[in-house]
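Replying to the earlier thread about multi-chain prediction with a worked example.

Input:
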Amino acid sequence: MIVVMKKSLKDEDIARVKSRIESMGLTAHISRGSERTVIGVVGNLDKDKLSLDPLATLSIDKSVDRVYPVTKPYKLASRENRRENTVVKVKGVEVGGDNFTIIAGPCSVESQEQMMETALGIKKCSAHMLRGGAFKPRTSPYTFQGMGEEGLKLLKEASDATGMPIVTEVMNPKDLDVVLRYADVLQIGARNVQNFSLLKLVGQTDKPVLLKRGMSTTIQEFLMSAEYVMSEGNADVILCERGIRTFETATRSTLDISAVPVLKKETHLPVLIDPSHAAGKRDYVPALSKAAVAAGADGLLVEVHYKPEIAVSDAAQQLNVSEYCELVEDLKKMAQIMGKNLR
Ligand code: PEP
Ligand code: MN
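Result:
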């Protein structure tokens, strides 16, 4: 943090600001120029102490002109901290780096036939991991809430039959133990992206975390959520942009495609796009998926159902298997242009 002092200044003003900085456990580096005095502030606040916000505290001093942060509030997730791209490894599948990784499968796990038929179908078309929700964050409490552990068992059967690792959502800390028994990647949904106690808990596990952006979280807030997971010791975080809420109603959400280059600049973590929840309508999913490759994303999380017409959740946005396979053919051509491996 840099503190720029006002022009007319007495020694006692500098001493007062310096002692305020030190009282917060930080160090002040004073540099007196001919025009201005500037104080560099370094150090970390003790998060277990009731501490003041140094930026606000120093800004209100009468001799301070302005205060601005120089480092990002996210540290472990920041590119400043790690220049090379993180590659998250899940049972032989890599996410990040030069890979374009596809996580596909239905919105919800519904039946053995549905999971098995969908998994066998997508496996033939470059799907690398299998998704499906057993605990569903539904807007209405009166709609299907997911099959729970029964659903996790069906995911496991389909995963064993195809070799694709399982990506599934954990919504509630009380379900974490059971989800951990089946999941290879723990998905944190858009509605839980700022459930900080859940983020800390998944940060204490050894499973990679797929973190979805909330419909109203800024990119900075999104990265702070990743920081929550990482600060507990789990460095394997995969980010997923899934559309944000805007005034537009033609699509379910507005895919923030700009988030891809911004995140790529700000963080070393892999970035996926979920075109399905962003669009809300299957017709738009191919275009958004292609945009994801062109923008430099590391992969897709896409909803595919063997019979979307009978899907119990998100029926309108799920591709059938042949639509999905057709899309992947186009994505392969685009991935090649972008220097990404999609096999
Ligand atoms: C999902 O991927 O199953 C889901 C519910 O998505 P989101 O949390 O992004 O709404
Ligand atoms: Mn869904």
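Residues 88-337 form a domain with the TIM Barrel fold (CATH 3.20.20.70).

Feel free to reuse this layout for your own posts.
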